[in-house]
Amino acid sequence: MNIPQHSLVLYKNGPARVASLGDKLEIELEDGRSLRVRPKDVLPLHPGPLRGLRELDLPPGEVEAACELLEGEQTTLPDLAELVYGAYTPAAAWATWRLLDEGLYFQGTPEAITVRPLAEVARERVAREAKAAEREAWSEFLNRARARRCAAEDAAFLHEIEEVAWGQREQSRVLQALDCGQNPESAHGLLLRLGYWDGTVNPYPRRIGAPLAVATADLPELPDEPRLDLTGLAAYAIDDEGNLDPDDALSLDGNRLWVHIADAAALVPPDSPADREARERGATLYLPETIVPMLPAEAVPRLGLGLSEITPALSFGLTLDADGVVTDVEIAPSRVRVQRLSYEEVELRLDEEPFRTLHELAQRHRTRRRANRAVFIDLPEVKMQVADGQVAIKPLPRSRSRMLVTEAMLMAGEAAARFALEHGLPFPFTTQDVAVGDADREPAGLAAMYALRRSLRPRQYSGQPGPHGGLGLDVYAQVTSPLRRYLDLVAHQQLRAFLRGGDPLEAQAIVERVGAAEVAARGIRRAERLSREHWTVVYLQQHPGWQGEGVLVEKRMPRGVVLIPDLALEARVKVSESVAPDSTLPLRLTGLELPAREAYFKVG
Questions:
Q1: In 10 A of CB 581, how many CB atoms?
Q2: Residue 558: which pLDDT band, with cuts at 50, 70 and 90?
Q3: Beta bridge partners of 313
Q4: Is residue 38 within 8 Å of residue 70, measured between CB atoms?
Q5: In sequence order, what are the residues at sequence separation of 6 or more whose Cβ sits closer than 8 angstroms to the Cβ of residue 131?
Q6: Residue 133 burial (CB count, 10 A)
């Protein structure tokens, strides 16, 4: 390779002047340094003479004119330099190399340069400008994010973070660039720090994949069929104040208790579009901020008990003996006239009929369950609602009116399960295996209740009957919420088919529905639990000076698990070794971590 002294060469993509020759070349660089390099380490651009690199000022040229003349041809660096800049000088050679290296108009090597068509150049220029604008936007976004600010033009970058927070993608270059963990909690925390999200954004239903869109299937008209006329009986739908989907009501006819249930199966037969949608959902999603019904929106106005003057129902007529055993069961599609009452209203009327007798029947049934070794746990519960971003938490008192309704629903579930067994009807049964001693089944203090709840095995749904040890019932099925729980709806579909002389679903179909519905409902329950934990922390954010009381329910020194009744919240709090379980402790809020759904308290 013949490289003259004082010539222009390329070294590591930059210009260099050959100062002296020898076994190695001595070259001068733009920054004034001198280096000794091998000849093969440089690429000759111009033979010179070049007195200094300051002579390489870029001359004006006619690049596009050269492209038009040479389109479709090949050329060399000296010829191209002369065509573009009018002469093959060191400055022109360097400028031509830069054009070649840029790759926009020309591509190849100094000995074989390909000229790109101008139309192709125009498209490439647009693409490069777009990439440059994207790089600039990315850099500006990172600067704003590091300053904990964001702007309207950052929406695309922020949406990428949201997708991680929602569990819809695993990786994000934004999180990586900002040194954040690649997980939903880190993404959630970043969105909060940027002010793009606040506490009113609940990510958990979307993260879990819970259905948030309304069901879209159409519902048919009610079938023209005989119905037992029970409109002459006073019927009462007893719920929490503000309940939006009343699906059960009670009547008393002499010594017979009637439990009326919304007749959802009349509009949702097996394998109908509405049935398939409900199976995929598993249950209605109840969030403090909204409700996403399992069935199409029109189902509740048409079937909710007490929402119209006369309502269709599936009614369960039950007769109890002196020991609280259901001795006679009648099940029939019916028409009922229902009055809606709150638990508080009924609590004030328990000395009146029919509430006094209803309460006595409930007590009788509860006494029988207690004798059958039922488990009774009375841990605090709250009602939580979110309106306009504000969280309200109201403790739910344990009242006789709630017990009355609970026992009536259990009677109906037991009666329906027995009815199915007696008639060989495939059915979705609910069972629970309880392996605790008799002395532990009705603990007195919160600590013992908490321990008992942790030890209980979860209830199971099955096409096979079995005892429900927690309820103290030999056989049981959930049937009182077909608007809200899919397996309740399946139970109603089976009962209706049997009562009308139709073809009930076979046992294998019940097993398949149990499996599908339980998988879906498990996600619903998890979304509800995590959402309640989220909104509890938001409530505490909105009450930063919160103080209250907690009850120590478990000791894991040096911290203990404290149950806060007013919030139905468990928290780990540092306690002294001398504090005994069931002790009431004064607590004050010391910190919050919303993405982790954690609240921190201190005794005192």
A1: 17
A2: confident
A3: 262, 334
A4: no
A5: none
A6: 10
CB 49: neighbour CB atoms within 10 A?
Answer: 13
Tell me whether residue 1 is exposed, middle or buried, using C-beta atoms within 10 angstroms of its C-beta: 0 to 12, 13 to 18, 19 or more.
exposed
Using CA atoms, how far residue 357 sits from 237, 323, 343, 369, 414, in Å, is 16, 15, 16, 19, 20
Omega of the bond leading into 558 within 30 degrees of 0 (cis) = yes
Q: Can you read off the two tokens belonging to residue 293?
A: 């019904």
State how far the Cα of 266 lies from the Cα of 221, in Å rounded to an integer. Answer: 9
pTM: 0.84
**Omega cis (within 30) before 354:** yes
Residues 415-439 have a mean pLDDT of: 91
Residue 581 structure tokens: 């379980």
The per-residue DSSP string of 66-79 comes to HHHHHTT-EE-HHH
Query: Which pair of tokens denotes residue 486?
Result: 């899919």
Cis peptide before 49 (omega within 30 of 0): yes
Distances (CA, A) of 183 to 9, 177, 194, 259: 51, 14, 17, 48
- Cα 589 from chain centre: 27
DSSP-derived secondary structure letter, 581: T
Tens of pLDDT, residue by residue over 100-113, are 999 999 999 999 99
What single letter denotes the amino acid at residue 275?
A: D
Average of per-residue pLDDT values in the chain: 94
Q: How many whole angstroms separate alpha carbon 562 and alpha carbon 582?
A: 9
* Structure confidence at residue 439 as a pLDDT band (50, 70, 90): low
Position 58 confidence tier, pLDDT thresholds 50, 70, 90: confident
Phi-psi region of 389 (alpha: psi -120 to 50; beta: other; left: phi over 0): left
Pinpoint the alpha helices (H) of 166-245: 173-177, 184-193, 204-208
Contact between 478 and 472 under an 8 Å Cβ cutoff? The reply is no
**How far is it, in rounded angstroms, from Cα 432 to Cα 40?**
82
